[in-house]
Amino acid sequence: MILDSKIPAGPLAEKWTKHKFNSKLVNPANKRKYDVIVVGTGLAGASAAASLAELGYNVKAFCFQDSPRRAHSIAAQGGINAAKNYQNDGDSIFRLFYDTIKGGDYRAREANVYRLAEVSVKIIDQCVAQGVPFAREYGGLLANRSFGGAQVSRTFYARGQTGQQLLLGAYSALSRQVANGKVKLYPRTEMMDVVVIEGQARGIVTRNLITGAVETHAAHAVLLCTGGYGNVFFLSTNAMGSNVTAAWRAHKRGAYFANPCFTQIHPTCIPVSGDHQSKLTLMSESLRNDGRVWVPATQEIAEKLRKGQIKANDIKEEDRDYFLERKYPSFGNLVPRDVASRNAKYVCDEGRGVNETGEAVFLDFRDAIKRDGRNIIEQKYGNLFDMYKQITGEDPYEVPMMIYPAVHYTMGGLWVDYNLMTTVPGLYALGEANFSDHGANRLGASALMQGLADGYFVIPYTIGDYLAQIPPKKVDENHPEFAKAKEEVQNRIQTILSINGTKTVDYFHKKLGKIMWDKCGMARTEVGLKEAKAEIKALKKEFWSNVKVLGTNEELNQTLEKAHRVADFLELGELMVDDALNRNESCGGHFREEYQTPDGEALRDDENFAYVAAWKYMGEGQEEELNKESLVFENVKLTQRSYK
Predict the structure, then answer these.
(1) Catalytic residue ranges
(2) Are strands 292-296 and 361-364 parallel, antiparallel or unpaired?
(3) Could you give the C-alpha distances from 292 to 131, 137, 334, 373, 474, in angstroms and in order?
(4) At CA 607, angle to CA 604 and CA 608, rounded to 5?
(5) Which of 134, 172, 229, 594 qualifies as a cystine partner to 244, CB 3.0-4.6 A?
């Protein structure tokens, strides 16, 4: 298949406007004849479902949580980007576009990224109108702060709860449509497969998580807004339930999976404390506005610190290495996440880590508190400081926070064209579930921006272009493909339940996570990736012969839920390794140790790898087929990234 990205012709700043005008429309009377399924109710899903219902479409919205408010979008803390230039500090749509392209290490489409920057200014107005309580300056204007990868302040925020407040805004819009009868909500319901009829997505198969009932739902189009797959690493900042199943089922039905190895490692996470943990806790990147990252200047001092012979506050200023400020004077502590994460790893590998495991650096607010006063810092970050104290038992107002990089976001996802449609007609992917906007490294505060851009301002236009070309008659749920897909799901459930092995689902998930973190995590090598592929194959084989899942299908069975998700993670993990092995360069979050500059920065190979790697599923046990979408840069110059 030739990957047609459907990027409109013409100047960059005019593409989206012209595309909207050239897109076919569905007249208002006909909209009520079309059914749309939305899977996932985070920012992308809730905003899409609310917007499409407002237009008149009949929407079914599915989430596996007990309420749409529990979607993982609530965990985003620091803010949302928009090129409003309220600070009058030189920001613009083009600068946000450029920072995003550069931050993604030139591995994203220009047209998609420019559209994202363009609609960002509308998102803030939309959310303010919904009552989202953004922070404000003394004079009443919305406040901004800085985030990594930018030299301007463009990040709007609601203390350290931005994602939660934005989701409540989208949820209120969604609830209005539920009350109007235009959205039918299906909580505690997990999508298990996509139904494809004559090459077009026509519905889904679901499992009721309370009763175990397997059901089918038909529609003219299906939107997957199901987030990322960071939990393939077991320990990540994602919610425990976050998974890849919806996207992976779509992949096995013909949707190409793009850039799966592009995983973001977030630099400010509370460090791992032991084998007992099932997830990690993120400390917002916004903390790097005022917190200074440092480690002891020598291994000797660090060793004393780890042994408890001295405390952090005992270390003199001249014995502290503010390594990000030293190496990157232009950006300092606000370098992009991949750069900050790698440098934290470097200093810890040198033996200068500050906790007992040697895998932590300090994020210190001493100077900010001295400069601005504790009250100002409390206003900005109070809930984050409280959360840190609750988890670690240490007060960050008195002692420095300890942080270390952890898996956070996934830039890879289902391949989509400019309309957000996958390679399966009628099947769309929005937000983190698609690959489209962040390249090899997402800038902080851009996840919320993309999710809401896709749901509020992109899909309402682009889905009409597709629906206008198909008749509005009801999709026949009695078509044999629905029964066939349902039977396949039921057989898979019975297969997992009947294995009755000796190892728990968590055993396999933890083993997979360790392989992925050690060999396909912050740094990758050809040798390590080849070892990982063999180990994952063996682990997958063991899973299907020795996993133990207790209980039955016809009940609330969380072990069964996990087993399905881990089975998909095992297959995804293998593809991530293949993708990382194929990409013989370093870019953004994909760092191959064989390809780096003399000073340890990512070394791209634009001649051979300036493309999107889109993988096609070829069948059970078969190697996937690589397809390439070439990336063309007409408005930015491809240069080696520098934040110095």
Answers:
(1) 337
(2) antiparallel
(3) 33, 24, 10, 16, 59
(4) 85
(5) 229
Rounded CA separation 465/8 (Å)? 14
- For residue 243, the model assigns a pLDDT of 97
Which DSSP category does 458 fall into? I
Spatial separation of the C-alpha atoms in residues 596 and 600, rounded to whole Å? 6
List Cβ<8 Å contacts ≥24 apart for 99-102: 99/149, 99/150, 99/443, 100/437, 100/438, 100/439, 100/443, 100/446, 101/439, 101/633, 101/636, 102/149, 102/636, 102/641
Please write the tens of the pLDDT for every residue from 300-354: 999 999 999 999 999 999 999 999 999 999 999 999 999 999 999 999 999 999 9
Task: Tell me how many helices (H) and strands (E) the chain has.
Answer: 19, 19
Structure confidence at residue 1 (pLDDT): 75
CA distance 264 to 272: 17
CA–CA separation, 517 vs 618, rounded Å? 27
What size, in residues, is the chain? 644
* Residue located via tokens 């050239």: 22
Question: What angle in degrees, to the nearest 10, is found between the helix axes of 526-546 and 505-520?
Answer: 170
Per run of 10 residues, the mean pLDDT along the chain (length 644 residues) is: 93 97 96 98 98 98 96 93 94 97 97 98 96 92 92 93 96 98 98 97 98 98 98 96 98 98 96 87 92 97 96 96 96 94 96 95 97 94 93 96 96 98 98 97 96 98 97 94 98 98 98 97 97 98 98 97 98 98 97 94 96 97 96 95 89
| pLDDT score at 277 | 85
Structure letter (DSSP) for residue 431: G
Q: Inter-axis angle of helices 162-180 and 43-55, to 10 degrees?
A: 30
Q: Are 462 and 420 in contact (CB under 8 A)?
A: yes
Contacts with 384 (C-beta within 8 Å, 6 or more apart), sequence order: 77, 160, 283, 284, 286, 287
Strand, helix or coil at 65? coil
Nearest of 62, 50, 475, 453 to residue 245 by alpha carbon: 62
Beta bridge partners of 343: none
* Helix (H/G/I), strand (E/B), else coil: 58: strand
- Position 237 scores a pLDDT of 95
Distance CA 177, CA 121 (A): 25
Burial category of 400 from C-beta neighbours within 10 Å (exposed 0-12, middle 13-18, buried 19 and up): buried
Q: Which two tokens stand for residue 602?
A: 């990512």
- pLDDT on residue 276: 83
Q: What is the DSSP string of 384-430?
A: HHHHHHHHHS--TTTS-EEEEEEEEEE--EE---TTSB-SSTTEEE-
- 29's CB contacts (< 8 A; 6+ apart) are none
Whole-number pLDDT of residue 160: 85
Q: What are the DSSP calls for 598-621, one per residue?
A: TTS-B---HHHH-EEEEEE--STT
Residues 627 and 618: beta-carbon distance below 8 Å: no
CA distances from 484 to 197, 432, 464, 479 (A): 11, 29, 29, 9
Please state the pTM of the whole predicted model. 0.97
Of residues 508, 627, 521, 490, the one with CA closest to residue 571? 508
Burial of 54 (0-12, 13-18, 19+ CB in 10 A): middle
